[in-house]
């Protein structure tokens, strides 16, 4: 990933050489000029030569600049411009609003306005349909306020941190890795005199940024002389800042709590009840949709990195000895972009792979993990995520927690780059073990054997009398420590006792070694009949950042097209009906009582069909309609006269897929947003036609074939 | 409300008199016994008389006890028993789970388990349908984390408190009003020797408990010698404890924030954008569903008083000069229990009223408020709330905030008493004004006049030169204060200046009075033309405690009936299909491949019809089915042999309204939960039949009429 382009390296080398040539020639010119003996012709020739070599250097500089741009920054400006159009439209139409705007807002907090709220509700409803209902998952709903003990067990109290530095004079806080990243990027983009070696070093830092320790980050910040961006003051050493919002539960001030950083813990702590609810059988999955919180040091990237967000998480509990999935064949034929760690390490790109093959070859660790990767792919593409800008990237070994068996992120490409939107991890037994240990409640599963199985087990029998004589008051601790030995330890001790007659033994509750003799304990292997296997289930966790998915969906759905007059660019969100905040609009072509009555009849039929719509009856227009579109010239009752093209443009900008225009008392025109094609449908049929295409039972193409197409005054171009 | 029952009062009086008679007679007996002259007969007679009067006293005691019980406590025991059955069923079937149970939980925090989560999702979906979509409301979704300035403006930082007392030795915290309430109730119930006056006093305290100041509460606690319930230690004076969970936003520790105590503030701060989105027109409503937080001092009443809960709130913005509602006629004919403040004050009960009349007579302040009361009634009764245990109680004058125009609570009666579940308040312009003042952003509406209107306005012109001479450096403050006078103040000053030549004037920025002479300011009335009216809208706020509504719904839906054998009581939740966590079940009557295939075909048809169901194919039974019902005897694959009656009983307990039993390859049996009636329906029709009855297009009675009824092996009794 950090591989330095050899061409770029060669150019930097050439540039350095040419710079040396310029310096040498300039020195020569200066020498000639200062030498009294030199004639003008020689001076002129040397100056010409300097000019020439400067031109050559400029040419190399230009090539290098172009290369840096094309290495990831070529489209930076156009990406930025695209993002601005999307964001402007989103903010203007209140898809989102910076929270508490009248108080100058709070970084990293955003509201969903009316259309954004509807999109979010649609995405969550589909998530529930696609995962919870389809897979018979057990959905739960736990509080955000979480007592400290739960998050100590999960490791969040200790490890959910980012490294922070402070401006030593003003106290302003920065993320240490952000400062170093900005420094490296800036150098690489703007400092052309950078040597190839230095460039490679900076690129390497960017590649390993996430893995740097506080000490390493601090050393680099010192080495490069990085200062506070706003004041240029010196910075403190990096230190960890816990990203959880802390609070206190109850009035005593003695019960610390946190706003949950993820919803998963609420499921883990309920494992026992859920397992019981499921008839004490594995596998089963539990799911939860809810708010999570992350007190970012300095939020960036707009809607992508926020301090409060909606997560939708699944914890699929499975026997670690059998991670097959009965429905894997349903997704095995899917083919999409995958980015296994081997491709990443060798500097290659993501490749299209068939999921079944990826699992078959062991690229994906197991069928259940593979099944969820496939289901996530189907989920995202159904929402309207572009499959060519969606990839599943495997975590590198150093990215994964030590306990994880495998982990893949669904990454979606948007103007900010490739963004992790869903994490799909096989977390093995880590979480259940952690809570078992902390709570003392065994979060385990049982497999009853059809017939009892014979197993060989180590039996440790301390001889209490001897131990009492030897250790007196400490006897109990020694006995407990002996009994707690695992099989390996016990067999080692047995070997020592047999060969040497005694063994050194560390008793942690005493904090020291003691000597155990062969009179003090007997260790044997015995055959026992077991009726069941008791084990901690593994958990496979697909975790969805709903806000990130929605933002990427906005970018993937957005396009512009010229207005009819060609004088402006009109914005369109091409949301599929599933996601669209409103499924259709109804309006009479002209102000006319008959048409209005028809519009109301259609509206009633749409309600009965369960289709969300907006009706625009001019008389009530301004208070009830869809295109609450607040550009100043439209105010003051002038909307009755708004051209049909403008009306369509406004609904296109909200992503409304279908528009019904009442232009007769028997049939109406139905217009599709993206093709702008129109069909004529009988008034009594129109609600069911819209229902069919929005429910996905038919396509627009089916309708074009079934109904007469139409072009008339109600067309927008 | 605090009226003491005159009969009870008379009984207490009689009891006190009888006690005096007992004491007197006992004294007489003692005297006789100690007197040497008394003969045995006289003593015996006196003892008999004592016995008689004691018996009379006991009889009065019994009557009083019975009366106390019937005054609200008669059914206490049966209520408690009923609640226990409901709660046991809810916990056993995981409708809810105490949060973080394996860590011994946190008071006031509960999880929704799988069926509870489904009920909640259904209630919220219906809320969205009934309010947001039906009324074209603007739904928003704002963060829970809220900066302090917002909650300072709203008054929560200062006033969102409960009075707390601390055990002076252990530091344990209690709600002061709870302790006083418990003391009074306990005395009234158990201390029969209480005088009628004392009883009246304690009842009065219970009635005015919410209005007592910290000082008054503290005085009563001292007067009655109330100590810490657990330790009997003395208590501190009551002091306010803020109920918001506090946190800190960002890493600096300098930006205090709180977890929002309500969702409403997120709407108010967005008023300007939402008004603009609505085409700058009133009225319109915004809505929000989300989590809210309340750090209760000592949560009681189980699911009713919790520290984190889901609110659904509507803020309907309206011109204060016109609170009519165009759709009021839709609800005007509704008749239900209302409890206006006059009835409360005069000690009467709630009465059935026709909503239109209540608004017409001015009992309800305005049409819009009345409209929402009617819509809330329809919402709650559609969910299954019993209309006879639902009343709308008007706030008493002392309960309402000073700014509120009127306020009604939808109260639902459950085993805990009458519980406030929805508040419907006309909050006038309070909230928007508060945020306008704090933020400096005018949250106002405009009404453009068709023609400019002539209005008379006061014009205040300070004479700066004179003011400068008189007040030097303070001139600016005086000028500003003069200009800020309202019409009334200005006209008073004008009168004083004209009569006395000078006026005393308080300048708040200087903190003192100054003397203004008639040279320093001119005050005139001038006619001006105005093109628009600028005003702060009033807001009418229906606010729904979703968890409370759901809990009351559980109680109203729960009943028991004997099993077929009559040996046990079976639990049923008679949820309407709208609310039911699962709409129907499908299972083959016997293990049989043909039947299983039919069951799968029906399941597919149900999916296509959008009906949530659970299918129970015996082979896969334990891992996929509905009655994940973990009673021990059912485990271990024996479920295949479970009787049909037991299967029904399990689904009844989850409130599943319909069960499809496959008992032939052409038609099936459909059983309705509450009547246990069955009909035979063709396999190809069954999905649409279930859809019709669950969507409410047909009733079960319609189906009974349309399809043959059935009684067979698949009947449960």
TrEMBL record, chains A, B:
CDD domains: GlyRS-like_core. Pfam families: HGTP_anticodon (PF03129), tRNA-synt_2b (PF00587). It comes from Carnegiea gigantea. Residues 43-70 form a coiled coil. It catalyses: tRNA(Gly) + glycine + ATP = glycyl-tRNA(Gly) + AMP + diphosphate. It is found in: Cytoplasm. Homodimer. This is glycine--tRNA ligase. Its EC number is 6.1.1.14. Belongs to the class-II aminoacyl-tRNA synthetase family. InterPro entries: aa-tRNA-synt_IIb, aa-tRNA-synth_II, aa-tRNA-synth_II/BPL/LPL, Anticodon-bd, Anticodon-bd_dom_sf, Gly-tRNA_synthase/POLG2, GlyRS-like_core, tRNA-synt_gly. Residues 14-71 form the WHEP-TRS domain. One of its GO terms (biological process) is mitochondrial glycyl-tRNA aminoacylation. GO terms for cellular component: mitochondrion. SUPFAM superfamilies: Class II aaRS ABD-related (SSF52954), Class II aaRS and biotin synthetases (SSF55681). Keywords: Aminoacyl-tRNA synthetase, ATP-binding, Coiled coil, Cytoplasm, Ligase, Nucleotide-binding, Protein biosynthesis, Transferase.
